[in-house]
Structure formats: structure tokens, C-alpha cells
Amino acid sequence: MLVELKAVPLTADRWGDFETLFGPSGACYGCWCTHFRIPTSERKTMDGDAKKEFMRARVTKGPPPGLLGYIGQRPIAWAQVGPRSELPMWNSPKTVSRPLDPADAEGSSVWAVSCFFMNSRDRGKGYSHRMLSEAVNFATTSGARILEGCPIERTKQSKSVGLYVGSLRIFEAAGFSEVAKRKDGRPLMRLVL
């Protein structure tokens, strides 16, 4: 039986919880969830501390760039969700997640849920379904009209770090439909809100 997970927007007053969840190495290889936010050429010149400070400044500036999931007071999960316009690398013409219409990358009503991170001891327990559900609610109440994701169809294990983009299974369960497939195993999924 799953313990109730509560998801809340990441605001500056919750930065310490984000930092706790991501740990000293910054989650996935020191990314600090900057992979889709910073052009590759610039990101490659940044160390983990610079990426962490970039994300801290983004959180401080607002609005919230995603949701933190908690079990009690313990942060266990993250979902990056917000307007596509904030994610230049997710919109790049070279990526499988590029928008169907280039205008979708410019406006404020087409959103993306682009990254997930789960505390390693809590992976494989179904919490990603709840985080995606909360991301849908957050996008809806924030004025999005479309929410997109570009999940992975399969991994070798349910606890794989490669699931940072989410699994196809959770997007299908949340009602998303495939709208494009530019690479085998990585469909672009869409939910009209």
C-alpha cells in the first residue's frame, strides 16, 4: 500500500527540500534539472555548483518550475513542468521532443512535463503516476491548454535513471495520446486540458 504523496510547487522557501532530494551530486549526473533549460554548449562549461546556482536563481525568480513530492515531511520526488518556452533544449529542432508547431515553443499555453526525479529508495513504487497527475492539475490551474511529454517506452528496470523523462505507461494511464514519433521508443505525447 502506497503512503499518501503530497505534491506542491517548488518555491524559494522549499529550495532546501529540493537540494535535499537532489543530494550533493545534483540528481542525474549533476544536472540540477538544467538539461533542457540551458543550451548544451553553455551547460558543458558549467560545473555542478554553477548548474545548482542557475536553478536556485530560476526558483527564486518564480514562477515555480515544477513540483516537489513529499511523503510526510520528506521530499521524495520532482516533476519539472511549465511552459515550453522555458525549455529551449526541449524545443530544439534536433530533439525528439520538438514541438509539432514551432509557435508552441513561444507561447505560454503549451506546457511540457519534461523531467522526473525520484529518491532512489522510492523508485518503482508507483509515485510517478501521482506526480504526473499533480503536474496535469498544476498545468491546468496555471492556464495551460496543452501539456506534452516525451517519455521512454521501455527500460531494463523500473528504477532506471533513464526514466527521467517518464515512462510511456504513466503518460498513457494519465490520458496522454501520441502525436509524433521521431525516434523509436520516444513518442511525443499530448494531453489537451
UniProtKB/TrEMBL annotation:
Top-rank taxon of the source lineage equals Bacteria
What Gene3D superfamilies does its record include?
3.40.630.30
The record's annotation in InterPro entries points to: Acyl_CoA_acyltransferase (IPR016181)
Q: What name has this protein been given in UniProt?
A: GNAT family N-acetyltransferase
